[in-house]
């Protein structure tokens, strides 16, 4: 499972929630997009998020 978050999120719960999910979900991976906020993929991060998803899906068995 890939957990994605924006590094510039102004929502205080995002970081701790993502960290906690990573602790309890086996084999999960956390990917933080430093230049994006919580809604970045909807506004300006489409290419970056698509590339990350492609990489993750191609590497899913490793």
Report on this model:
The chain is α+β, with helices and mostly antiparallel strands. The chain has one domain (2-58). 45% of the residues lie in helices and 16% in strands. The chain contains 3 helices and 2 strands. The protein has helices spanning 14-24, 40-43, 46-58; strands spanning 2-6, 29-33. The chain has a two-stranded parallel sheet with strand order 1-2. The longest helix has 13 residues, at 46-58. It is flat. The two termini are 12 Å apart. The model has no long low-confidence stretch (mean pLDDT 86). This is TAP-like protein.
Salient structural properties:
flat, 62 residues, 16% strand, alpha+beta, two-stranded parallel ribbon, 2 strands
């Amino acid at each position: 499972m890939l957990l994605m978050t924006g590094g510039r999120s102004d929502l205080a719960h995002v970081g701790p929630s993502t960290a906690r999910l990573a602790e309890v979900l086996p084999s999960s991976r956390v990917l933080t997009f430093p230049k994006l906020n919580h809604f970045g993929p909807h506004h300006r991060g489409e290419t970056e998020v698509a590339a990350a998803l492609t990489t993750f899906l191609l590497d899913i068995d490793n």
